Amino acid sequence: xxxxxxxxxxxxxxxxxxxxxxxxxxxxxxxxxxxxxxxxxxxxxxxxxxxxxxxxxxxxxxxxxxxxxxxxxxxxxxxxxxxxxxxxxxxxxxxxxxxxxxxxxxxxxxxxxxxxxxxxxxxxxxxxxxxxxxxxxxxxxxxxxxxxxxxxxxxxxxxxxxxxxxxxxxxxxxxxxxxxxxxxxxxxxxxxxxxxxxxxxxxxxxxxxxxxxxxxxxxxxxxxxxxxxxxxxxxxxxxxxxxxxxxxxxxxxxxxxxxxxxxxxxxxxxxxxxxxxxx
Length: 279
Description:
With 279 residues, this protein is an alpha/beta fold. It has helices at 14-25, 53-63, 81-94, 109-115, 122-141, 181-188, 199-216, 238-249, 268-276, and strands at residues 2-6, 30-37, 68-75, 99-104, 145-148, 153-157, 171-174, 191-194, 224-230, 254-258.
């Protein structure tokens, strides 16, 4: 079992979030740090403060030395995948090969509508994610990419320089949609993130993912399985440890503990001690 943490850049301030990441960078049990990619706060007052995910991630890459880092996850409708490929390659360089490229189909109607970014139907989102994966892999691995899809069209497009990770930064696909999202993960992902839930729910989605892997001729062992895990309502560590143990029994590879704001590095020491009992 491996462990990471997540600090959403909402309802917080830069100094506090930075302090958490720099402290975690010195605690070996934390393999990775994650943020999210939204423009409004989610599951809270949407009029509150929310910093942009990729800018904060780039700053955190420069403020840390060891942690792998990524977004859980970037909705592909927010940025053209050619732009995202350039961003990812550059951040992979800046971070010294520590980037995890987290993407998903997108779901937030409020911020998409407010910004005039087309979200589309469930089918549109699934089709767009699949096309975006093809574009990203092409631009991150090939000298030029030509692609003619329903959402994206590229003609001998280039993306240079590429990052140090080969063949490209690991692609983490977040989402639980059994017919499309998990099939896309089976085709393209090196990492699948379960949004959170019971061990039984995780196991069922895992089995669906593995069935898609069999259909496309993919070894499921090539895909890291991760899940969001939450502390107790008052920040207690015990409930997270219980959930991680249950998920681990179902084959979870990476537990990502969500640290709700206000952010403080004080939680990291006790959390690390608790996680060490599960390692």
